[in-house]
């Protein structure tokens, strides 16, 4: 009788042990799922978000795509302007209608070392408010362009990024062609990726840049470049900070060779966003 009771006690103890063991396994499984979900969420978490209807708060500078005909004063900030209207920004180049080629770069700069480790997703919408043509003497274009760059002044001294250029000189054979910036720790060059018919419709840019993976995907409407990642050397006088720049740009028409045309160039940009994703 005592032996049967002892056996019964043993079975009860073993039964409780099995139940506790099952609970431990179940809790461990739940913890593993929760940990995996948390890690996945962290990997895709947006750590910074910026955006707006227009470029209010951005800076405007003269770019390197410039020319002044003989007798003209050098291109300066008095030849470019960016107006921030309620629903969009208007970039202008050669506002004094001189015999020059003026380059307007309007950009948002963020100094933050995390710019090198985060993945970036950016985009904005753009259009021409007029149509470039050989018969349009008051408004004409050389390019409309833009991109995202991260300068590593602290370590590699390289400028990483992705950019596009829409060529809009109606006298040029590449009128309407779309290019992506290509560079591998050198001065870089533009490579053709497609054709975007010049018009006054709205178009959309999207860039995803992952510096750690050395990858960038660039989309302009339905034209995609999956090898848009670039790294460019810069002059020795660039700073030692880590700085990210989202840019929109226009270049007014090159008046050469006749040096006759005095055309204004304009581009409209709106609804920009910039997400930083934790890796």
Overview of the structural elements:
This is 3-keto-disaccharide hydrolase domain-containing protein. By secondary structure, the protein is α+β, with helices and mostly antiparallel strands. It folds into two domains: 1-43; 47-277, Jelly Rolls (Sandwich). 15% of the residues lie in helices and 45% in strands. The strands form three sheets. Strands 2, 7, 9, 10, 11, 12, 13, 17 and 18 form a nine-stranded mixed sheet that branches. The longest helix has 42 residues, at 2-43. The radius of gyration is 28 Å and the shape is globular. Mean pLDDT is 87; it is low at 1-42.
SSE diagram, text form:
Blueprint: H1 2-43, E1 46-52, E2 59-62, E3 67-68, E4 80-84, E5 89-93, E6 100-101, E7 103-111, E8 119-127, E9 141-152, E10 158-167, E11 177-182, E12 184-186, E13 189-195, E14 203-210, E15 215-220, E16 223-225, E17 230-233, E18 242-252, E19 265-277
Parallel strand pairs: 12-17
Antiparallel strand pairs: 1-19, 2-7, 3-6, 4-5, 5-19, 7-18, 8-14, 8-19, 9-10, 9-18, 10-11, 10-17, 11-13, 14-15, 15-16
């Amino acid at each position: 009788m005592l032996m049967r009771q002892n056996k019964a006690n043993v079975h009860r103890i073993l039964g409780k042990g099995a139940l506790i063991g099952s609970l431990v396994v179940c809790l461990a499984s739940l913890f593993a799922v929760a940990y995996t979900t948390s890690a996945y969420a962290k990997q895709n978490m947006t750590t910074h978000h910026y955006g707006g209807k227009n470029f209010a708060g951005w800076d405007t500078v003269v770019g390197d795509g410039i020319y002044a005909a003989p007798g003209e004063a050098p291109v300066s900030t008095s030849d470019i302007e960016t107006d921030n209207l309620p629903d969009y920004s208007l970039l202008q180049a050669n506002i004094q209608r001189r015999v020059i080629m003026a380059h307007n770069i309007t950009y948002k700069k963020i100094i933050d070392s995390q710019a090198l480790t985060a993945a970036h997703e950016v985009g904005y919408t753009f259009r021409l408010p007029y149509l470039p043509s050989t018969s349009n003497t008051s408004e004409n274009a050389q390019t409309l362009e833009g991109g995202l760059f991260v300068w590593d002044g602290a370590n590699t001294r390289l400028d990483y990024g992705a950019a596009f250029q829409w060529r809009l000189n109606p006298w040029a054979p590449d009128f309407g062609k779309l290019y992506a910036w290509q560079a591998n720790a050198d001065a870089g060059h533009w490579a053709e990726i497609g054709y975007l018919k010049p018009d006054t419709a709205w178009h959309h840019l999207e860039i995803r840049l992952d510096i750690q993976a050395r990858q960038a995907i660039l989309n302009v409407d339905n034209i995609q470049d999956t090898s848009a990642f670039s790294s460019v050397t810069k002059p020795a006088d660039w700073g030692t900070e880590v700085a990210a720049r989202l840019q929109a740009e226009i270049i007014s028409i090159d008046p050469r060779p006749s040096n006759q045309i005095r055309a204004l160039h304009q581009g409209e940009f709106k609804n920009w966003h910039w997400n930083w994703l934790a890796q």
